């Protein structure tokens, strides 16, 4: 089976005349203006984009049911009722749970927490956990990053005399009874201005609303933004509007004196002490360590780390998460190799693979790997004789949530959104699910949908780059979904030398005028323009076309411009 060559598409939301005019007006370089226009930033949005600030966040009371949620929580506080924070086992859920617990602690409200075991209990509220809460005398349950797909369980909790406030951001599958209290921007009844908050973002809006009611200090509220940034980045939601503000401000606080002691220990254990923490470090180094325990064992370890107040315990737990992450990496590598061997020779529109030896906490990572490499919607299952627990990832143009909804007669449960979902079903139904998903995809998708598109900003010869320009690109960060890093095209880059390194290839290149030399890094080169990207043609003297992102590299006290090559092709 071969992967597919990608299609390079220029963003062109500007013309030279407009660019020159705005460059003078905004007092910004023409290159920066082009990049802003390519991200649909107009004059009205310019200040909020370049200068995100806390006062630009939306009023939390614009969210449907917020007033009701805050009043119910304050009633429980006044009655001294026992409150349970019920979270999820991924980083979004872990940070949302930790955030609410820290907030409750700071307003002197004792509270408990519960995070279900991924393998034994699965996602969301469950009746056994609710019964445990009832026996402990819990009167109010506040969910984090879950609940909207557990309306039966909410009803069950209320039948026992408990009240439930749901905070969630997942797609709403079923009608929500009007007497339920649900904070979710995706609710049909919710007119909140921004729909794409992560679960931790919704939890933060709840804290922000309570803070307004009780005159809680704004500066103290801001101290939670590092947790909000971590959860938002890990959940890969759009970095637009409020999300971009929350992440930008949160990363600026990492680490600081208000950063949880456990998070500082994790940063140290990960080898990031003394380094500026950006979206890459947060999303690809810190978040996987927090996620590891939820994937392989119990997420409570990560919450405990976020709440600890002793240095000794912080480093003990941080090292434990580090070991779990290493185990996860080894397991993931093995499972990805096995999944590829199980793929059919003839590629289908939707790829479905299953194995009884795969850990259910890692199948989502395997689904992402297969989806990225073969550019097909992918579902990966961990199975036993009776039941299969799976994770799905999709490509633009195909909502895996809607597809699963059309197959729900085969499923025990499912939940998620357009690009990712979790699913449980009887093992005997896997083959039928594969058939039905492919029937849906064959009607929906065309051959061109299976060619990944890579959007670049414009053509820019690296010879024109300066350290000042590359430094100025940082004002566009944080980068991620909805706010992509600048990507430039350069044709006929000449290879001077190449070297295989741990994660890819290092090249020494010259620009089209061959005036300057640039070090370039290629990570995961097997994905570039398909697995057959003609590696043998990358040799000194040859030329390549490349999509690249420029960075500043500091080595032995010297700064230099380095190119990160995101895709390449060999000119004919």
UniProtKB/TrEMBL annotation:
Keywords: Exonuclease, Hydrolase, Nuclease. SUPFAM superfamilies: DHH phosphoesterases (SSF64182). It comes from the Bacteria. Pfam families: DHH, DHHA1, RecJ_OB. GO terms for biological process: DNA recombination; DNA repair. The keyword Hydrolase applies. One of its GO terms (molecular function) is 5'-3' exonuclease activity. Signal peptide: none annotated. Residues 82-232 form the DDH domain. Residues 349-438 form the DHHA1 domain. The keyword Hydrolase applies. InterPro entries: DDH_dom, DHH_sf, DHHA1_dom, RecJ, RecJ_OB, SSDNA_exonuclease_RecJ. Residues 457-567 form the RecJ OB domain. Belongs to the RecJ family. PANTHER family: SINGLE-STRANDED-DNA-SPECIFIC EXONUCLEASE RECJ. This is Single-stranded-DNA-specific exonuclease RecJ. It comes from Aerophobetes bacterium.
């Amino acid at each position: 089976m071969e992967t597919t060559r990608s299609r390079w598409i220029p963003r062109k939301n500007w013309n030279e005349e407009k660019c020159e005019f705005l460059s003078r007006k905004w007092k910004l370089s023409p290159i920066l203006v082009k990049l802003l226009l390519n991200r649909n930033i107009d004059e009205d949005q310019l200040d909020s984009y370049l200068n995100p600030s806390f006062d630009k966040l939306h009023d939390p009371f614009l969210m449907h049911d917020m007033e009701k949620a805050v009043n119910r929580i304050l009633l429980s506080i006044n009655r001294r009722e026992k409150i349970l924070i019920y979270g999820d086992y991924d980083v979004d859920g872990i940070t949302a749970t930790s955030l609410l617990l820290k907030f409750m602690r700071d307003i002197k409200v004792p509270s408990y927490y519960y995070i279900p075991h991924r393998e034994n209990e699965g996602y969301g509220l469950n009746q056994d956990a609710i019964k445990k809460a009832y026996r402990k005398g819990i009167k109010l349950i506040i969910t984090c990053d879950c609940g909207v797909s557990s309306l039966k369980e909410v009803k069950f909790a209320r039948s026992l005399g408990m009240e439930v406030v749901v905070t969630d951001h997942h797609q709403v599958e079923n009608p929500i009874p009007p007497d339920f209290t649900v904070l979710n921007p995706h609710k049909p009844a919710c007119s909140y201005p921004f729909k794409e908050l992560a679960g931790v973002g919704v939890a933060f809006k709840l804290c922000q609303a309570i803070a307004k009611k009780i005159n809680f200090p704004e500066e103290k509220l801001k101290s939670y933004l590092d947790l909000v940034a971590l959860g938002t980045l890990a959940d890969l939601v759009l970095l637009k509007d409020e999300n971009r503000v929350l992440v930008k401000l949160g990363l600026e606080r990492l680490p600081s004196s208000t950063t949880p002691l456990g998070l500082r220990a994790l940063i140290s254990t990960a080898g990031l002490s003394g380094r500026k923490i950006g979206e890459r470090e947060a999303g690809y180094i810190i978040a996987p360590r927090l996620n590891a325990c939820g994937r392989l064992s119990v997420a409570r370890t990560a919450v405990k780390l976020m709440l600890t107040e002793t240095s000794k315990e912080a480093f003990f737990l941080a090292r434990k998460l580090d070991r779990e992450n290493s185990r996860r990496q080894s397991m993931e590598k093995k499972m990805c190799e096995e999944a590829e061997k199980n793929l059919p020779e003839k590629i289908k529109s939707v790829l479905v693979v299953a194995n009884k030896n795969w850990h259910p906490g890692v199948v989502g990572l395997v689904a992402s790997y297969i989806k990225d490499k073969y550019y097909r919607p992918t579902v990966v299952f961990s199975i036993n004789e009776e039941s299969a627990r799976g994770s799905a990832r999709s490509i633009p143009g195909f909502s895996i949530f809607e597809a699963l909804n059309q197959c729900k007669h085969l499923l025990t449960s499912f939940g998620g959104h357009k690009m990712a979902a979790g699913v449980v079903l009887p093992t005997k139904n896997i083959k039928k699910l594969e058939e039905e998903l492919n029937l849906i995809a064959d009607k929906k998708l065309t051959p061109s949908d299976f060619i990944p598109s890579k959007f670049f900003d414009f053509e820019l010869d690296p010879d024109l780059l300066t350290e000042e320009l590359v430094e100025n690109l940082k004002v566009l960060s944080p980068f991620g979904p909805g706010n992509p890093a600048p990507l430039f095209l350069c044709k006929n880059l000449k290879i001077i030398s190449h070297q295989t390194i741990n994660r890819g290839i290092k090249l020494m290149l010259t620009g089209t005028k061959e005036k300057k030399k640039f070090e370039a890094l290629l990570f995961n080169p097997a994905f570039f323009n398909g697995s057959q990207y003609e590696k043998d043609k990358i040799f000194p003297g040859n030329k390549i076309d490349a999509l690249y992102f420029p960075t500043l590299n500091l080595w032995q006290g010297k700064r230099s411009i380095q190119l990160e090559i995101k895709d390449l092709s060999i000119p004919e």
